[in-house]
Amino acid sequence: MPADISSPTAATEKSPQSRFAVGVLAFCGVVVAVMQTIVVPLLPHIPALTGATPAAASWLVTITLLTGAVFTPVLGRVGDMYGKRRVLVASLGVLVVGSVLCGISSHIGVLITGRALQGAALAVVPLGISILRDELPPERVLSAVALMSSTLGIGAAVGLPVAALVVENFNWHTMFWASAAIGVLDIVLVLSCVPESPLRTRGRFDAVGALGLSGALVCLLLAVTQGADWGWTSTRTIGLLVAAVVVALLWGAYELRVSAPMVDLRISARPTVLLTNVAALLIGFAYYANSLVTAQMVQEPKATGYGLGASIVVSGLCLLPGGVMMVALSPFSARLSAKRGPKVSLALAAGVIAAGYVVRYFTTHSLWMIIAGATVVASGTAIAYSALPALVMRGVPVSETGAANGLNTLMRSIGQAFCSATVAAILANLTFVAGGRTAPTLHAYQVVFLIAAGAAAAALLVTLCLPGDRAPAVGTVEESRTVPGDRKDGARTTAIQEGA
């Protein structure tokens, strides 16, 4: 018989510091999300500051995407098995080390290494969601998880203007030293205010499965992010895509046979989980287009006929209202999910994002209308990012929470990678000469808006195909149980036990 477990409510009553856990974990999520975008305003200056080529400088963004994608599901699984707070603190420690490396050096190799470590800390968000599910009483879970999930968008919206201010007014290393200091503060706050969950998943860590998943992701994301530079029909790009497919198939076959898989593909194949992950990929694509093109569009010179010639700081501030709306809408999304179900929330969110891009398509010459359109898109994203983990948690047992939310966060990252490649290809190919320089045409930006709206509409269709909300309420602790048909020998037990 599996061991008994204590309920999240009981754990909360035994841990007074849980009262502050939501705020602390949300702050950690914002800080980690800021790290993903903090170098974007700095990229045009990196070659002059470091002597690196523009291609090498672009790796300061690419490497965080790769390490974030690889470590998010892996560390989510490690947290399920060995302690979520323990792994979360370790992730923040890695962020601090990466920030220090970037702060002490101007060598591009050291900077890329530091950024790789910063990207690995993205696992903080799904780990925080798992801790909240374990520790909070059921009535508080949805609102807390909604806020935690939205920190990915909030941090991205805050990171750009903050980084732009630093670039224009201070030594560029300052933002990395500030990141290190805030990371240390995060660690202290987590150790002081966030209890360690007593819930554990039994079994051995699937090292082979982790390596297989990592290999498939690296091959896929390298091909997607570097395909434009290498050529989409080049040997390297096609070879990596083929390798990604082959490794993924071999990895999947292995995961179906191992007794304690890195990712339980049978659970991931459940319609609720599978369709939610597909929707996450599409939402990630749709949202990221908003971040990628807004700043660039308003910075385009007035000679283009549509550009506003705005400064780096002004262009970054265009996204700030969207970040504010993400904070404000998280409680609304939680209440809507509690009353109508997260499926309704996600469908509404996808519709709002699509509507936001329609607004953006027709309002390209007014700064305030551009801000309004970007804010509508961010508002829809806030509702979506709040609903996605609620849907995931309704489809998986408590023992799989960290890994399942890590996989969902990964799908958002993959969507963002595909969006980045798509936007880069469109803006590079639809160009004209204006004011003595080559710039994207207005039509190029409008094509991006239409494709992003299409991704949001596709997310809406996928959401409508989700099963109805018949699962147990989020926040309840499922007893360990046998999942029928999971193994040839009769069963696989998804067990949870108390203790370290």
Please tell me about this protein's structure.
There is one protein chain. By secondary structure, this protein is mainly alpha-helical. 73% of the residues lie in helices and 4% in strands. It is built from 19 helices and six strands. The strands form three sheets. A two-stranded antiparallel sheet has the order 1-6. Strand 2 and strand 3 (437-440) form a beta hairpin. Helix 4 (54-82) runs antiparallel to helix 10, helix 5 (84-104) packs antiparallel against helix 6 and helix 16 runs antiparallel to helix 19 (442-464). The protein is globular and about 65 Å long.
Which short descriptors sum up this protein?
6 strands; two-stranded antiparallel sheet; mainly alpha; 500 residues; 19 helices
Blueprint (SSEs and pairs):
Blueprint: H1 8-14, H2 21-37, H3 46-50, H4 54-82, H5 84-104, H6 108-120, H7 124-135, H8 138-169, H9 174-193, E1 200-201, H10 207-230, H11 235-257, H12 265-268, H13 271-299, H14 312-317, H15 320-340, H16 342-362, H17 367-395, H18 401-429, E2 431-434, E3 437-440, H19 442-464, E4 481-484, E5 491-494, E6 496-497
